[in-house]
Design brief:
alpha/beta; 6 helices; 28% helix
């Protein structure tokens, strides 16, 4: 059974944050709220966590994982951002956008797209996630919690707990989240291409 952790959305309890990070470092797979629905999360080095995310979501090896970063500086360590992308991405973060970019050597190879060598990155505008990332000290391997046959992410921790009780190790509850995914912008070819329209305004990248 998954552990259920009820956290304050605006003032996350440090003791509980420390417990979640300890679980992540012990290779736990967590479900957590973001500014665009719930997501699945694991530590970057958690090989089994990556495979569990693919199984839960019914995805194959070509899935673009997302590295959830605390700030633009951390994002820049994970992906190559050229001058044309720099200002636009910086202006849109933090917020409900995921950017597909070429990964740097900092990204474990198994997390990159097998052919394109790209990975998703994002900086969420969410107090709890920012606090969790600060405590963890590194990006979080992540994927939207959209189950097979569904088109929107889950929005309630208790709903996730009931659905995935034996498939994840820990569920964070911190109030309802929006039911809209991030807007995905693929910048891997040098120009922005909106590949999924979501919560973030896609017109700024048109």
């Amino acid at each position: 059974m998954a552990r259920y952790v009820d956290m304050h959305p605006d003032n996350p309890q440090p003791r509980l944050l420390a417990q979640v990070v300890e679980a992540l470092r012990d290779d736990a797979l967590i479900a957590y709220p973001t500014d665009s629905g719930y997501a699945l999360g694991a530590q970057l080095g958690n090989r089994e966590g990556r495979d569990r995310i693919l199984r839960i979501r019914g995805l194959d090896e070509r899935h673009h994982f997302t590295l959830v970063c605390r700030d633009f500086s951390q994002l820049g360590q994970m992906v190559h951002v050229d001058n044309s992308a720099f200002r636009a991405i910086r202006a849109a973060t933090p917020g409900p956008y995921t950017f597909i970019l070429p990964g740097t050597p900092e990204v474990p190879r198994r997390l990159l797209h097998p052919k394109k060598k790209t990975v998703g990155v994002r900086i969420p505008d969410h107090v709890l996630v920012q606090a969790l990332l600060a405590e963890l000290g590194e990006p979080l391997l992540s994927s939207s919690l959209i189950l097979p046959g569904e088109s929107e992410p889950r929005t309630s921790g208790w709903d996730v707990k009931e659905e995935l009780d034996h498939q994840v190790d820990l569920v964070i509850e911190a109030g309802e989240t929006p039911a809209e995914s991030t807007t995905v912008v693929d910048w891997s070819e040098g120009a922005p291409e909106v590949t999924r329209r979501g919560a973030g305004d896609p017109d700024r990248f048109a």
